[in-house]
Structures are given as C-alpha cells and as structure tokens.
Amino acid sequence: MNDALQATLAPSLKSWIESANDPASDFPIQNLPFGIFSDAVNTQPRAGVAIGDWIVDLAALEDARLLDAHGTLHAPRLNDFIALGREHWRAVRSALSGLLAHGNATLRDDPALRRRALVPRADATLHLPVEIPGYTDFYSSKEHATNVGSMFRDPKNALLPNWSELPVGYNGRASSVIVSGAPVRRPNGQIKLPDAERPVFAACRKLDFELETGFIIGRGNALGEPIACEQAEAHIFGMVLLNDWSARDIQQWEYVPLGPFNSKGFATTISPWIVTLDALEPFRTATPAQDPQPLDYLRHAGDHAFDIDLRVTLQAEGASEATTISRTNFRLMYWSMAQQLAHHTVSGCNTRVGDLMGSGTISGPTPDSCGSLLESTWNGQRPLRLEGGGERAFLQDGDEVVITGWCQGDGYRVGFGECAGRILAARG
Length: 428
Description:
Number of domains: 2
Largest sheet: 8 strands, mixed
Helix content: 10-25%
Strand content: 25-35%
CATH topology of the largest domain: Fumarylacetoacetate hydrolase, domain 2
Distance between the termini: 56 Å
Shape: globular
Radius of gyration: 22 Å
Number of helices: 11
Structural class: alpha+beta
Number of strands: 26
CATH class of the largest domain: Alpha Beta
CATH superfamily of the largest domain: Fumarylacetoacetase-like, C-terminal domain
C-alpha cells in the first residue's frame, strides 16, 4: 500500500463534515464510495461521493478545477470515469480525502462552492451507478451450497464433485439489474405442482431473496486473453450489496438441464454506492481453507477475503418494525473474487468496464446466518416468526427486504448503505 493511499485510510482521519465522524455512519472520510445522483436543483444524473449525511457533487468540483477526471464526472453513469484506470480513481479519491479532511479550508470556507458541491443525501435521488454490459452470478458459499444440496439431494453428497474444484456460476440478465429502492414485481411463470401431471401458469408462490455482494469490473480483458488470479483484483473497481431475487417454484421446474432462466431474470437489486477495494483494504482477511488445493490457475498468495458484516431485515406491509432474519459475513466465502474472475476468463471470455459479478448467496454455519428463506425455512417447512406477529415461509406482497453491510474499524465503519426492495403483486 503506497503512502498516499494509506493516508486516506488512517483511523484517526476526521472530516470537517461532522456527520461523517459519527461512529455509526456508513460513510466516514475513510470510505468515500462512488455513485450517481440527481436532486431537485439539478435533475441531471451525475457522479457523487457519499460522506456522512451528504453527497459531494464531483461534477461541481471538477467544474471548479479541484478534481481532474477528463469531464467524465458529468456523465449519468460511472463507466467513463472507471475506464480512466486505477491511477485516476485513486487520484480523485485522494484529492477528495484532502478536500474533506478536518483543517482543509478550500471547500469548507467557500460558501458559494459549498452550496453547489454539497447536497443532503435525504434530498437526492440515487440512480444505477454503472451501465452494466454483462452480469454473472456465482455459487461460492460452501454453507449455502451444502444447505441446498442437502435439501434437494442426499445430504451425504450435498456438494457435486465440481463444486470444490471451480467457482460455479451462470450468466445472468444484465438488463433487469435495478438500483436499491426500486420495487420488485412478483413474476409469473410455469410452476409444476407436486401431484400434477403438467405445469400451470401462475404467479410465483415461493418468492425469495438472496443475500449477496457484487463486484464491478474496472478494467476489462480482451477476447482470448485470460486474467491471472494474482492480477485479478487490479481489474476490480469496487463492491456493492446485491439481492438476486429468486422465484423458487419457477426455478425448480425450469433449471434442469440448463439452469435458472425466468426464475432469476425478473430483477436483481444492487446498492447505489460502490465501495472501492482501496477503502476495504484495512479489512482484508484470509479466505477459508480450500481442500483440495485449487488448480494452478486458481491459486493466489495472501489474503483475499474481506471482513464485511452482513444483515437482512424483512418488514411486512403495515408492520411497525422490521425483523432481522439473517446475520452473516463475507469472509466466509469459499471462492474469492479474484478466483471467480480468473475462472470466468480462463477460457478467453472477455469482460468489460461495468460488468457485474455476483458472489452467490452468502450463508453462514448457524440457522440465523442463512442467506435466503429457502434455507432458513427449509423450503417453507419451518416458517420464521416476525416481530409484532405473523410469520414467513416465503415473501408476500408488500414485504420490504433490506440488506446492509459494513466493515467495523476502530471508531468508524466503512459501510455500503442499503440494498432495498419492496414486493409488488404479480400482473394479471
């Protein structure tokens, strides 16, 4: 880690924006995640960074010549900015850290510029941060894969032989990725009931969430040129929270022989703020032991997991409070992001700036750490009790699911904000 980067991550670093110094804030000066926002004063979507209760308008700072990003900060997506490369991301983040640091008067003591450059988060509309050319979802939590394999196969052979040899994944539907807060329409599809000879066409009866994270590609690779595992993290811009909503009954009927299709293509929600790998660096930790040892192209030295606490709450329509239904941690993931990206490209598959890679459902070893209702209710057999009354086997119309996540530092946290969605009734 170079000195300039290390200076932006110091636990003692404080901002003149007081709300950023709140130990419970997701967005201290050590974080500075990137997103796209608009507001009533300026309805044009543009680049911003979250800090405390505020958004820093990066386009306004570039207009004031306090940042240099070749005009990309005015764009309605971050792709052009990300395409400038890692050194530019770091330079902008470092410059911001300096401008927002306690004792720096450049922005703090310029009232006119401060009015243009600081927007209350409560007054802003957040947009999808990147144009997503492609979306891939992995299946990399050993606990999740074991739970599902035990549920639908012999528990003694819960994991298929390939699972411990490679990061299993499938190509998802990039066009249906939506930003946190957008509603999710219950899908219709073919459902095969247990005693029926043929399927029926109906609204999904087993709608579920999937607790995931995702990473955004920051530097692509050419067709036919794989990304080496040891270099893979240099191709990643940052991480988001992700909910890969699942229609379990539609999926059960369609997934053999080629995998999920309509059961996954109706919506995938991501959080609006992209937390850079630089901001996550202090929370790097070891991945779980891998047995058998991966093939050579999937090996990397050092620590490649991150200590990210993850939570899921569910609030029924009209309920006065939400119920926490899952607590787990990203560090439990068996396959790392670097291994996922190396495997994704080993055949020569090319990736592009803005591509989204989902971790797969993240579950832990205890009943309260399951990353889906499929697991925590054991396919609906053991419904969860909700605060204030009621229970859930699967999601009902009006339910709101909120995923949150953060890394806990010494007196501060680096958080992701919310990944939220409310279920709407199926059409027709």
